[in-house]
Design goal:
Helices cover about 40% and strands about 20% of the residues. With about 130 residues, it is of the alpha/beta class. The strands form 2 sheets. The protein has a 5-stranded parallel beta sheet with strand order 2-1-3-6-7, with helices on both faces. A two-stranded antiparallel sheet has the order 4-5. The protein is globular, with a radius of gyration of 13 Å.
């Protein structure tokens, strides 16, 4: 069974995403906003896809505050995790945000919150899962 790692600082969003991905997508789901945990999980190959919140308010790495863009850049620049699909999930949905965030981060996809169409959400996640 494939595992989705949700990196999200809003517990309610994490629970909603988890439920949708488990019930409709048949995925295992893990959740953390701890950057050290994210790095460990990905280095150990324990995630098949990541849903990354762009605006993490409390995430620290090596003593610095980091957001989802920075974490995605770190994962994409590491040969061990560069191929791991990452979908940015954000409430920032103004015109141009999608292109800007994808270009900046190197992420593979973008979903705006709130997620209204649950099936489209699951379909987008499943489409990026490695077979």
């Amino acid at each position: 069974m494939k595992t989705a790692l949700i990196v999200e600082d809003d517990l309610m969003n994490a629970k909603i995403f988890s439920k949708i991905l488990q019930k409709r997508g048949g995925l295992n789901v893990r959740h953390t906003e701890n950057v050290d945990e994210v790095m460990q999980i990905t280095q150990d190959g324990e995630a098949d896809i990541i849903l990354m919140d762009v605006s993490l308010s409390r995430s620290m790495y090596q003593g610095k505050l980091v957001d989802g863009i920075k974490i995605t850049q770190m994962l994409k620049s590491d040969p061990n995790t560069a191929m791991l699909p990452i979908i940015l999930v954000t409430a920032h949905a103004m015109e141009g945000d999608r292109e800007n965030f994808l270009k900046q981060s190197g992420a593979d996809g973008y979903i705006s919150k709130p997620v209204i169409d649950h099936q489209a959400f699951v379909d987008q996640v499943l489409a990026l899962l490695p077979t």
